[in-house]
Amino acid sequence: MVREIKIYPDEVLKQKAQPIEEVNDEVRALVDDMFETMYKKGGVGLAANQIGVLKRVVIIDLGSGKENQGKDKIVLINPEIVAMEGEQVGEEGCLSLPGLYKKVKRAKYVKVKALNYDGEEFEIEGEDLLARALQHEIDHLNGVVFIDRLSPLQRRLALEKYKKLKRKYEKKMASQR
Ligand SMILES: [Zn+2]
Prior knowledge:
The structure is a single chain. Helix content is 32%, strand content 24%. By secondary structure, the chain is of the alpha+beta class. The radius of gyration is 16 Å and the shape is globular. The protein is built from three helices and seven strands. It has one domain (11-176): Alpha-Beta Complex (Peptide Deformylase). The chain starts with 24 loop residues before the first helix and ends with a helix. The relative contact order is 0.17. The protein binds zinc ion (ZN). Residues 94, 96, 136, 140 line the site of zinc ion. This is Peptide deformylase. Pfam families: Pep_deformylase (PF01327).
């Protein structure tokens, strides 16, 4: 089922998500809905906060919207960054801040420990785009969005621009109803 994406500054995007106690069918149904929603909306990652669920669940598919969509689905339940190295600067966007793209500084490499779809513990290492996606999505679980990673001035400018984009987005959404 495609869920509604929560749009910034919705409170749920500023709150900390709670750990999953048991990876059961309910959690897997949430993950399935998240993939369906992400593919419909056209993103490469989604955190449960973004559909209004304060649970520590993240999905990533760098092939989203391309011909290899669905081939490398990454499900991270209770993810924790256990190592990070280096630095990279690259443009980010977010389904919860529609239309806004800003350059964000991130670690170049991260290692993340998490549970998978079957509840088994695993580790994933990522560089460049994958490292960026992992950091962006895990930030969501801690109530942090990408503009919070900008300098205070850049963040203020981004918010001013976003206000206009948000009005446009809301108009578009209203006309689709
Ligand atoms: Zn996001």
